[in-house]
Amino acid sequence: MNIDCLKLKKPCYLRFDKNQMTNLQISMNKEMLLTNHLGGFCSTTIVGCNIRKYNGLVVVPIASMDNEKHVLLSSLDETVIQHGAEFNLGIHKFQGDNYSPKGHKYIVKFEWDRIPTVIYRVGGVILQKEMLFMSNEHRLLIRYTLLDAHSPTVLRLRPFMAFRSVREFTHRNGNCNTGYESVDNGIRMCMYEGYPDLYVQTSKKNEFHYTPDWYMGLDYPKERERGYSSNEDLFCPGYFELPVKKGESVIFSAGLSPMGHTVMKQAMQKEMDEREPMSDFYNCLVRSAHQFHLEKNGEHYLVAGFPWFRCRARDFFIAMPGLTLYLGEEDLFNRYMKTAAKALTDWMDGKQPEVEVYEVEQPDVLLWAIWCLQQYAKITSLENCQKKYGELIEKIMRFILDGKHLNLFVHDNGLVCSDGTRTPVTWMNSVYPDGSPVIPRSGYIVEFNALWYHAICFREEMLRISGNDAEADFYLDLSKKVGQSFRNVFINKYGYLYDYVNGMDVSWDVRPNMLFAIALHFTPLTREERKNVLDVCTRELLTSKGIRSLTPKSGKYNPIYEGPQQQRDRAYHQGTAWPWLTGFYLEAYMRIYKRSGLSFIENQLIGYEEELFYHSLGSISEMFDGNPPFHGRGAHSFAINVAGILRTIRLLDGFNVSLNE
Fold first, then answer.
1. Alpha carbons 545 and 447: distance in angstroms, whole number
2. Is the peptide bond between 116 and the residue preceding it cis, with omega within 30 degrees of 0?
3. Alpha helices of 349-445 — where are they, by DSSP H?
4. Could you give the count of Cα atoms lying within 13 Å of 239 in the half-sphere of its Cβ?
5. What pTM, to 2 d.p., does this model score?
6. What is the pLDDT of residues 604-655, one digit of tens each?
7. Contact between residue 127 and residue 80 where contact means Cβ atoms under 8 Å apart
8. Could you tell me whether strands 198-202 and 69-82 are parallel, antiparallel, or unpaired per DSSP bridges?
9. Residue-by-residue DSSP string for 561-629
């Protein structure tokens, strides 16, 4: 069979050819992420070689043990056997930069439309491998299809078990249970007490060969880059063998419960048909947006990022509009907000939280919640927002105005103040080993007060449409006071905004936090003042991969996020570029330059498209180095970054429509 006949009629958007796949310098830096909305995921590189301790084919949360995710099935080696000759398609990295086996050399191409697909060619054998992590179930399904073969072919599958936390490594020991029990077309294993059973099965009758052994010295280079231990041992109980005929498909299943072999094929096809196609830049981001969704005990959460983040309150509110409303998914927004509102209300009422939303106590979280709800009003209507969320908005505003927040104080000039000297209180939250902030932003913080002014104006607007003019007048007067104070306190003689003002301690650092004062719907600044701020940000902070967290002109500029933890913490917000800020930057640009800025905005968005082919395929990394070539760093899929870009795309679409009407 000619390999050209395997090409899709329409070229796949996310695809890599043989030259890219067999070049490990390229393919080992491209990771896949498949999530199931239950907190579990499958993550590895496109060649199947794990490069970090968070990689694994079946990674699941285990509530009965701790609050961490655990790698049960680390990897799976496939071997094609013909006439007694064995061709191992797997690949592992071992200590000393050694790779064994080297199955990547048999890869013809990789494509990802609905699910990741790898095609191997070994002589006259062409084998297709398709991977799927089931929705709402902790189960990996892999479909192997023998596209071509000229003689009898046997497929051997060898699973590598870890049964460990994503934050730890496993090593050869005498405490693990290496035994197994037979189940329908497979085995059941549980290496340690407290872990769930893992069921490993196939859709076709197989022969399991029990040859228990430890594979020693696997190496994970991403951990070594981060200054951590990078070696572990994995346990292999044996291998499965089954004959495969030309044109035949067999399914491999690994899950926390048994699966009947007769339903595997139908279950996988049904899930495939429901998957969103990754056919272009926008559709990749939409799929990525849905990957952050987590449902637990009837509550809906947004995971801040993968592979190591939980649901953090600030990220929750910043990401929610872009990942729901701007995709036309109002119902999902309301489900998220129902959970988020419980977290806010419980915290403001001093109750033990019922939901697992973390860092609600941070002083800007309430302000971001108001911004998030203003986005809802913008997309739906003020009346709808008042009806659904008016009581929550009123509760938040009164909570702040009545001085009930322990670290957000309203001063006589109307501005809000926070103490961030001992612990970080803003999104710039990196710390030294003793817990003190690397960037101790304190006092009048610029984005806090931009958000506060915005919240006041929004509240006044909502009260007007509900006919409560008396209370609306209170907020109108307050907005005038806060607006004037904001301009008096933050505008400096060079035309940009101080990052924070804390008595005599004034931060002249050129940072992106002033962007919010010119991007939000309500701003206290004149057009000329906004343009001055934008010009400074454009000149000193803008990159093709995000907005720098600090100007290169600063002596503290540290743009490369790499090395051990302390080294990375010192660089985290001292020059690294953040894509989520680009959304606010471009929104500000549209407000100031309107039609004349459209081509510039489109060009900025194009800069992110190439990132979908690196790091976590189809998604955006947490941050990028502040200097060229702007390497992606940190978490390989970050919610607020995806949200910011999606929101900008929709704003741009809306702007184009309004121009053509």
1. 22
2. no
3. 365-379, 382-401
4. 15
5. 0.93
6. 888 899 899 988 899 999 999 999 999 899 988 999 999 999 999 988 877 6
7. yes
8. unpaired
9. --SSHHHHHHHTTTT-EEHHHHHHHHHHHHHHHGGGGHHHHHHHHHHHHGGGGSEETTS--SEE-SSTT
